[in-house]
From TrEMBL:
NCBIfam families: F420_cofC. Belongs to the CofC family. This is 3-phospho-D-glycerate guanylyltransferase. Keywords: GTP-binding, Nucleotide-binding, Nucleotidyltransferase, Transferase.
Length: 219
């Protein structure tokens, strides 16, 4: 599937990971958000270089980092949040001639190539593919054409995206992929992520000195 565009929305790092405020300082949350985002860019650059990556954000720092990984940076113009930003990105993707769009968060802790291979394979058979997060959210959304459905990110968004596809009479599929389902919303989520993929968190852990990675790596 060569006509697929990967869209990554990214908040300004200073506004990211607010739900971790109980266990991380503002500086630590910002550093964590940037670290996860960089890992995401590196993952797609390494494993799926054939696909265009587009990052939409209000942050100049975020857009500059996207460029360093070969991604296209798109400055977010609206003020109405994630769904409006994604619709803006979708219009760019459609105008650029892509037949498929996949939206992926910037902060999935464990990105697995085999899971994305499956996601993309299913997308050749279905117009909408939803990879559900553990809390009922949407951690990947593939649509063909890119604007096949509106975006309903928020509480229980996976079910809302499925309903949107059903209303439009589109073929759709919901996937539960073990790694892609994992968010980092609570301290225990972060602890688990560091244990599972310590090498991706090593620079951040060394900066914060909060997690002894070498001791926990194979716990």
């Amino acid at each position: 599937m060569t006509h697929l565009c990967i869209v990554i929305p990214m908040k300004s790092p200073s506004c990211a990971k607010q739900r971790l405020a109980g266990c991380l300082s503002a500086s630590e949350r910002q550093q964590l958000a940037v670290s996860l985002y960089a890992n995401t860019l590196a993952f797609f650059q390494q494993h799926f270089p054939q696909h265009q990556v587009v990052v939409i954000s209000q942050s100049c720092v975020v857009l500059s980092l996207a460029k360093s990984y070969g991604a296209h940076g798109l400055r977010e113009e609206g003020k109405e949040g994630l769904n409006e930003a994604l619709w803006q990105a979708c219009q760019w993707v459609k105008k650029a001639g892509f037949t498929h769009q996949v939206i992926v968060p910037s902060d999935i802790s464990l990105l697995d190539k085999q899971e994305f291979d499956l996601l993309f394979a299913v997308a050749t058979q279905q117009q909408v593919v939803i990879a559900q997060a553990k809390d009922g959210g949407t951690n990947a959304l593939v649509s063909s054409p890119p604007d096949a459905i509106g975006f309903h990110y928020g509480l229980h968004s996976a079910a809302q995206h499925a309903q949107a596809a059903k209303r439009q009479g589109l073929s759709f599929c919901q996937l539960r992929l073990p790694h892609l389902a994992q968010d980092i919303d609570q301290g225990e989520d972060l602890d688990r992520a560091i244990t599972q993929q310590a090498e991706h968190f090593l620079p951040w852990c060394e900066t914060t000195r909060k997690w002894p990675v070498k001791e926990r790596q194979y716990a």
